[in-house]
Write a structure and sequence with these properties.
The chain has about 120 residues and is of the alpha+beta class. Strand 2 and strand 3 form a beta hairpin. This is VRR-NUC domain-containing protein. InterPro entries: tRNA_endonuc-like_dom_sf.
């Protein structure tokens, strides 16, 4: 069965949330389609951002994720913004087409948390 983008988002968010990540859906797509008020999100901003506590009050880890179907195409404005985030700020944007792909994010979060002394997590 081919998953819709909404299904990929929901299943990926559920997996990450189950492993301690906080989920934030940006609704960037709704603004682009005229279904929401334009705010401060630039055109091409990814669908979701996930946050993981490091066990202190100052910093956290973030995963910036663009959700797509198996055949979904990354739009030119997305490609441009994702490239800008990577080049100017070294912020990687993950393209997730299958919810199981977020296991790599979960594992990397665990590794970094341990390295940075993230408490009981």
């Amino acid at each position: 069965m081919i998953l819709r983008e909404r299904d990929v988002e929901e299943q990926a968010a559920e997996l990450l949330t189950r492993h301690g990540w906080y989920s934030l859906k940006t609704d960037a797509g709704n603004v682009r389609r005229g279904q929401g008020k334009a705010g401060d999100l630039p055109s091409g901003w990814p669908d979701m951002v996930f946050f993981l506590s490091l066990g202190d009050d100052l910093l956290c880890l973030a995963a910036i994720i663009e959700m797509k179907t198996v055949k979904g195409k990354v739009r030119p404005d997305q490609t441009a913004l994702h490239g800008e985030l990577r080049m100017l700020y070294r912020l990687p944007v993950q393209i997730v087409r299958d919810p199981e792909e977020v296991h790599a994010v979960i594992e990397r979060g665990r590794q970094l948390r341990r390295l940075l002394g993230g408490g009981r997590w």
